[in-house]
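QA checklist item 7 of 12: single-chain prediction sanity check.
[x] sequence parsed
[x] length recorded as 401
[x] structure emitted
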Amino acid sequence: MLKSLLKLSGIYLLLSVALPLSAAESSGFLKLNLRYFAESEEFGGAGQSVVSIEGKYALYQEWKDDSIYFEAYLRSDTANHDWKSSDIRELVWTHVDGDVEYQLGIGKVFWGVTESQHLVDIINQTDLSVSIDGETKLGQPMIKATYAGDWWQLEGYLLPGFRKRRFSEGEQRLQFFPDVDYDDVLYESASRHRHTDVALRWSATLDALDLGVSYFSGTSREPRFVLNRSHGLSPFYEQIEQLGVDAQLTLDAWLLKLEAISRSGQGERFTALAAGFEYTYYQVMGSEVDVGVLAEYLYDSRPVETSAAFREESNPAVFPSNTFWGARFTFNDVATSDLLIGLIVDGENKAVQGAIEYQRRFYDNYKFEFEMRYFDQIEKDTLFYGLRKDSYWQMSVSRHF
């Protein structure tokens, strides 16, 4: 790990010297993580504690009508001792011509409004080897054009090239399916990972309502797992079409949220939605603390089973009929401290997934973070069965530049 830390520091020094341009803005961080699992591992040999280091270097250069943004991410841990999670997250050129904006390169795009699940967020691939919350994304090659009206905008995407989903594997913990051969990747398209996808999104702000309607056609970012010739499981990426809607209505202290999709191409057409609210109590009991109460309902019309579903023409649901409950504490202090507590409860088998996330800045450039993930009553015929012994807590300290 010391060797990896020195290597990462050397890369940062090289980037800091070689990349900055005149008047460019650069930023980044170095982070040390300690993760401890409550139980012994079910698979592999990672043990109950894992130490990892990660870093980010970002550079932004702007001219009159053009700009370039670069973001590199690096990570290594004591489980696999490699840099497989390292990636160029973004390297994108932007040109503005009146009401039209053009982008070319490797970029990241986020769509969505709900807290517990981002159904409509489909442009970038998910990196589950870093975090299982689904919010860590890989960079996506893209050509993007955006037209901005007075109260609406239209985005069009050409997405040449596909990136397969990253999972924990080898001796890493948090493996959904330890018997998957991630190197034996299957595609429905004859172009395999070279297929060009397309996407459109129309969005508007109508007084208190933020509304988005999106369309995607191409290779699914979410693989199905099928039997291969070795009688193991391989990721299979199908061609899909997805129509999505996201909406957020702001009514004083209320935020009403909705994400819904309809997708074809992975067996029978299915629908899924996440809908709920966030209500904020400001300056609770005369303090500076704001408390937000969150509740969301999650629905997916796909079947629940895992092992049987992987061997048929269906694709299993992640959240078939669940509820999410949470609370967000914003302390409004100099250290910009905040705390998020969330709980997902399965409406059928009462399985529980809990999360706590806390962060606090100290001194000028340092940040402390605490994260906990909890899994309980995870039954065998569910997608999260492989995580049933992987409840953990993690502490992180980072230095920001």
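[x] summary fact logged: Confidence is low (pLDDT under 50) at residues 306-314.
[ ] second reviewer sign-off
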